[in-house]
Amino acid sequence: MRVGAVALACAIGLGIGATLQVMPSTAPSAPPASQQPPKVALDDAPNVLVIETDDMRSDELRFMPNVEKFIARRGLNFRNSFAPNPLCCPSRTSFLTGEYSHNQRVLSHFSPYGFQAFNDADTLATRLQDAGYRTALIGKYLNGYGNQHVFGTKEPSLNYVPPGWDQWMAGVEYPFPKGSTLAGGTYNYMSMTLNVNGNVVGNRGVYSSDMTARRTRAVVDGFEAEKLPWFVWWTPVAPHFGMPIEPDDPRNVVRPDGQVRPMDTPARPEWVRGKFDKQIKHGFGVRADGTTETDIQDKPRFMQKLELTPSELRAVRTNSRQRAESLYALDKQIGVTIEHLKSIGALDNTYLVFTSDNGYFLGEHRKRGGKILSHEPSLRVPLLIAGPGVPVGERFDSAMTIDLAPTISTWAGAEIPRSCDGMPLQSAINHDSGWNRVVLTEGLVEALEEPLGLPSFPSGLSITGIRVNRWAYFRYGSGAAEMYDLKVDPLEMQNLYKDPAYADVRRQLQDVWTRYQMCQGRECRIPLPDELRATPEEARELVDYQDARTQAYYE
Prior knowledge:
4-stranded antiparallel beta sheet, 18 strands
């Protein structure tokens, strides 16, 4: 028997920028009826298609012309969008629950976390299904799914289908013997093994972006035939690294210590290989002269690495090119899928959401790759929304992964409980109101320093901080800390944490961090102090400046 429930969403009517009141911690267990989204008749209910990529950076949108054509030009680009815990498994759990990691307790990929830590009894899917929606997942689910046990039980998860899903086609991780028709897994682009409604199915020889796209279109056709509203979460693996190894992969990469190791890259179909070689002349987080960050001594000790070797520079460039190619191949299928929605008459009544579970380093701060840390390349994610009543343009208020569950629930008129940490984006879709709330940043890295830095925060995490419009502030379980004035230093090159000239700002940010680091529900939506807020114009000016400075520095 499954025990407990993960709370999903928050009180409706408190869109981004709304004036919030400090709520007592003894709030009632359910929101007043007036704060629930109005019920939507099934005949009038909209469809929702969420396309969530894996490890995609915001600046990689330029390699996806169909996403630009069919979503960005038809809707909104949220320029200040963040994944509070920039790691696949915690971020995807936050998408389904509307909760920060410290509340939904999926803190990492690794045991005791990952899929086995997720109580999936109450999620966006179960709420939408209860409201009369057909629901489907096609693609990647959570790290450890198929290999770890089901939450609260010893039940294997290989054939497990979570509650709330009418169509379930999720990549599994399982050590099938070599040569088996099921050998492959979530991260094998040419052999993505799926759990299809409880049955394990191999897909050898089929590129996974193409395969999941075809399955998405078939599922939509089935739902349309039932004449019921639907929610589809399409989760392709691109541009995450994965198998198979290809002839042009960077295999013999010489590190600063002389060791020779491969650099992992995504796989992509032959027709797209080399497409961006002339355009991408160096890694996205590397300067044209081969340098990254001149002085790294202000960073925590675990980040103080040597500059990239010539071999590593070539490898990061290759990785950047291959990531762009994998996204372009996916983009082709996104175009076919949206054209299909149009051809069957479903597009006008469908909300399209395009996002990623986290960003990715490609040389910035001398990080050859990876995520988890709270710096901008890892923390920022694309977020595009188009659909019924959504205007065309850009938005600059903060948006987070935890906001998507309450936003989708509101579109559907689904019942939602009080305890979600995120906020529905309907207000921000209508207009910017200003950056008025904190973005709490979180992460868990096992070893940050030598000697081993163990988590010292109540949440059990080893990284926790806050991001507001002008300031980034984060701390580590090892005792290290970072603070950046993004108005002066948008690339986070100069750590101001120990600078006495910024002592007053540091104290203020620390006070806010202390208040929010273990927030729950309404506590997470309490507005920032006036001096840390930003008007819509200030938020727009800063992100425009960040983008311009980043392009000038790296390109």
